Amino acid sequence: MIEKALPFSASEIKKAVDEYETPFYLYDEKGIRENARRFKAAFSWVPDFREYFAVKATPNPHILKILHEEGFGADCSSLAELVLCERCGIVGHDIMFTSNNTPSEEFRKARELGAIINLDDISHLPFLKECAGLPELLCFRYNPGESRSGNFIIGEPKEAKYGLTRAQLTEAYKTARDWGVKRFGLHTMVASNELDSSFFIETARMMFEIAVELRKELGIRLEFLNLGGGIGIPYKPGEKPVDYMEVSEGIRDAYNRLIVANSLDPIGIYFECGRVITGPYGVLVSKVIHKKETYKNYVGLDACMVNLMRPGMYGAYHHITVLGKEDWPHDHMYDVTGSLCENNDKFAIDRMLPRIDIGDIVVIHDTGAHGYSMGFNYNGKLKCAELLLKQDGKVKMIRRAETLDDYFATLDFEGLCETGCARSA
Ligand SMILES: *Cc1c(COP(=O)(O)O)cnc(C)c1O
Predict the structure, then answer these.
(1) Which helix (H) or strand (E) segment is 217 a member of?
(2) Tag placement on the chain: N or C end, fewer CB within 10 Å?
């Protein structure tokens, strides 16, 4: 059994458990900052390098602020994410707006904030013109269709709802230019949670080739190529993280062969990663409240799928550490469950763990991205708090847990109960 390292020491987690009610998320500021710096440093050769953090991964103002301080922009895809950025002081070209099936009010907000707008379809060009006017700089999202294969989470590009075909791209840039757009970018995203560096190098190469083609076809010079997100993280023990330097060197080689050789240098290279930026630096901390032995052995947590959907939704693996029992033999097999009336509300199935007792603290690894944010309120289960271990060693609550009042806030109980019970929630 290879144990996976946590971003926190056991005593740091225990301290947070003593102070705050479980379940909660705990993020590591130092880990996030150091990783952000490594990522940026790997691409220091790029004339205009930018990472736009995918807000949906961890939409918390304190996390966004930390990343903004490290020089990252924000990648938004909804009105709420745009407003969140605005309220954190992240505006203008620090925002990339990569949406799809976009409502007009979202385009209007993106225009109001001066965000870089990345269009998902050729029909969005007249739609945007009509509802918010065209900006000077515009980006289009490319879907390579059958020319690329995707991976498990994102699926095959030709089955994906995102982006324009290659033929539509040429048409879209031409029309945009005719309608007065002056500056252009190109975007794609073909992987999710991909650990193979060569995948990203191949994506860059594909994008460089299109930049060369568009120059030849239309005389258009792209200002930047946005390679999207999708860099994976080692969820399972023994998996290796993506080596940023390896990705960078591979992209650099293709850049020299295609961009420099065709006199298109300089051209910006952007990413909009979420998972790899914060994923390994957050954990979900939960307490064991029940044990059950029937046809299988179950361990019941005070967290459920509302707090972390990935295992239930994708069958995703999240490593689990039982605090204080790291060195015990992992000789018990459990299903680790939540409390929803949904049989897929399980954090792990047939997982070998040390013997678990009621009251044990269970730490679910690598939940710093697409963890809290994916949650929902099924069964009226409430979303938990988010805590940040700051660089000075102090724990700060950066989002309180939901209360029943939050949950009932959209309901109208007026006149339903004579005795005033409407107020008692
Ligand atoms: C989800 C998403 C991302 C971030 O993906 P990660 O796997 O977290 O890196 C980036 N861009 C777009 C358009 C997305 O939908």
Answers:
(1) helix 197-218
(2) N
